[in-house]
Amino acid sequence: MNPIRNNRGFITSIKYKIMFEKKEISNGVNIIIGLGNPESKYKNTPHNIGFEVIDKIAKEKDFPEFRLAKKFKALISEKDEIILVKPETFMNLSGQSVKAIKSFYKTENILVIHDDIDLILGSFKVSRNSGSAGHRGIESIIKELGTKDFERIRVGVQPEKGKPKEVEKYVLKKFVKKQREVLKPTILEIMETLEIKFQNNKNNKK
Description:
6 helices
């Protein structure tokens, strides 16, 4: 199997592909959570890249329309025992939504997709059991779950000039056209990585 590299040359999804092929993800419901802020003014911002990836998955894989699940404080869409989740709590309280849905479905198969200011735009990294690195949404999830042992796809949003001094302002600013062009193939690569998850889920149902 050849490593998959993103448009900045980073090896990205090979580790995740191997993990899925070994079927370390158990049978049952799989929950994929994209982090972001629910109001329309936050669309097309670095902090909402998690929502954007979730929307792309839903569109490409023909998931049903998202519906509001009040008990989870989230928008969800479900197909083939895969549940896509967009918390409605706003970023800093994401853990409330994640805890509620994880407890309800009694599953350890949690994958969180979020922005990462420490990774350059155009790259992404799969990690597990790592700290929040100051990301408030991840901090909230770790606090609510009482563990950092869950799968994450960290999507790089750091600009070409390097990490900005005012990170909180930057992640809420709209992407410019050039940044969108860089992001497009990255999101497709993330989709390729997640394709293994969808395929294994189908195989497990046979």
